[in-house]
Amino acid sequence: MNQEKKLSHYISEAKLIDINKYEKKLQIAILGSFTLNGLAEVIQVKCSDIKVGCTTYVSNYNQYNQDILNDSSDLYKFSPNITFLILDTQSILGSLYYFPYSIDITQRKKYVEEKLNNLKNLINIFVKRSNSKLVISNFVIPTYSPYGIYDSKIDYGIKEMIIDLNSKLNDYIKNQNSVYCYDLNGFVTTYGQNNVFDYHKYFFGDIKIAFDYIPSLAHDLISYVKSILSINKKCIVLDLDDTLWGGIVGEDGFEGIKLGPTPPGNAYVEFQKRLLALHQRGIILAINSKNNEQDALDVIRKHPHMILREEHFACMKINWNDKLANMKEIVNELNIGLDSIMFIDDDPVNRELIHTTLPQILTIDIGNDPVNFVSILMEMNDFDSLHITDDDVRRGKMYLEDKNRKTFLGSVNNLDDFLKQLDIKIEIKNADEFSIPRISQLTLKTNQFNLTTKRYQEEDIRKFVNDKKMLVECAQVKDKFGDNGITCVSIVKKEDSEWIIDTFLMSCRIMGRRIEDGILSSILQRAKEEEIKKVKASFIPTLKNQPIANFLPDHGFVKEGDYWVFSLENDIKTPKHLKIERK
To answer: Is residue 21 situated within a structural domain?
Structure first.
């Protein structure tokens, strides 16, 4: 369960943070209609915990309107990357919070519409003046009504007013690319209004979230930080015995394990359902288990109450090897970074082994009571994403298809034969509204095969797309085993006589098929068709992008000063095993 420390702890810790030691930095603004003392400090500490240096701006008490409307305000001078606007119901309703029926239904509807339009106006002004993402809270639905239980009989009563306002605000935000709605009503529902709201604190200083719950609020808000910086998890590696089912299958047998409709087996079923839900939205699942392989596979394949089946796991290591060796094999087979993985195991010895030897992996102490497994998983903010693309949803299927490719590779004589028989098709497309989120996602996440590792938010990509001097393309890769989705991105700055490659990257999932050769040849060919003389590119080395270190010289680029340069008088080589189509 999520056990937050006291607010005083975070305030003390915030004073000790040196943000300069972190490579990733972020500026966060906090605006509110009520007092939010301590929230900035908790956010700073939680950012530090994930190795992000955070600087904060906190608006003066209930000055969010002035900050947003004044184009020379300190808010805009601060130039935040993320802005949190936390609003409360009492402030938005004013005197109507206690006297909602002092006006008739027509006036109540008009009042809500006016408040909605005011919020829309603030959002529009902020979006035009700032490059920051805006996270605005919805409103807590009142539990109080002067009409008491009769309120449900009143047409457009106080609760319905706020439900309507929330619904319309959310509908509006859905169509705003850089604006998101934080479910403050859900936060209060989760922790309980009588806990979150403290009358002593309210009368003392208009504090509408009790100090004990400020850290929990910050935990929720950090979800946006992790998503924006793309430091969330995309793979869960799971133990089996006493994790996906109760008991030890090698000792208790197929029929003796606890998995089914009655306690404690139903808790494991519920846990598996939650894992399957994550899998269906794109989280990769894998197994790392010390077990007799056939015993475990029999349960996975045949047990009537098993929710997760073999096709849901991108990789399964079920053997008597130590879990560290298995984990390294999983990482290699899936070709993902250690920092993308979460490890769940009931055994504290195994958890400590992975935690101490592979600290980049997030190792979870899930405890011994399966009743808590689901709530622990649901409280985590490590899987949140600001945009879930079609490629995300299909990720599990893509990894299964990749299993088939690897099996096929083992059946042919050499790599050339393998590539020819894969029947690879590459569709190169100009960026559009559909592909922009995925392009941004790839720039934020791709480390290994990435020339410059420049990171771009969706707003940055949109600016490039609207700039006639920029060419933003992505490539969708298909073969005989399936659709790999959008896995390659190139961003090119077009000058009169030369093009400069700003970004060239490819998902590590499709490395080793010479697809990058085809993408590069397409860029060079297009430049030649537009009578460009040369194409320039940079390689900016990092700790992780060594796989692309020799890419430019291997493809005919010659070092000239700070750039690698390809003269378009030279021949452009296109791999014969690829079918390339520009759309």
So the answer is: yes
